[in-house]
Amino acid sequence: MKPAPFRSFLLISHKQMALTASRSTEPTGTSNVRADGILNGFKLNWMNLRDAESGKILWQSTEDMADPTREHEAHVPKSILKCRTVSREINFTSVEKIDKFRLEQRVFLKGNIIEEWFFEFGFVIPQSTNTWQNLIEAAPEAQMLPASLLSGNVVIETSFFDDTLLVSTSTVRLFYD
């Protein structure tokens, strides 16, 4: 079964965006220990981006881009901006059980937020390896920004959660080659 597509708009006014501050309902000490346990046992094994219509892989990486200790770089072909729908596959391993695994992604252009995306995976079995696919639909062509403006100026901030517990936040700077 194909996942429901997520529409990506590259031009969204700040008034349209609902920014959320997620906080754990657990006591601070408990939440930090739990978050550290999940993070220490979590690994992003690989990720790819495909043209969802043709199935052709346009970009792939085996770098653990969930590592929060540094800003990562992804060099993707600028032809990806011509795709109407992009399929993103993420393969990850978790030592710990995650009750409600989800991601919040914020897309920044030159430091200003232009998009916000929310994805839910759900329950993650401890000691498991999982593959997660999302479909992302492009904005209408008239609203697309050119690769020359985007390249090196787009940072995707991904926050990993177990329900309301923030586990980690990582960043990836995109380059369109």
Automatic annotation (TrEMBL):
A Pfam family: GMP_PDE_delta
GO cellular component: cytoplasm
Location of the GMP phosphodiesterase delta subunit domain: 38-176
InterPro entries, per the entry: Ig_E-set, PDED_dom, PDED_dom_sf, Rhodop-sen_GMP-Pdiesterase_dsu
GO biological process, one term: sensory perception of light stimulus
Signal peptide extent: none
SUPFAM superfamilies: E set domains
Family as reported in the entry's similarity comment: Belongs to the PDE6D/unc-119 family.
Protein name: Phosphodiesterase delta-like protein
Species per Swiss-Prot/TrEMBL record: Mesorhabditis belari
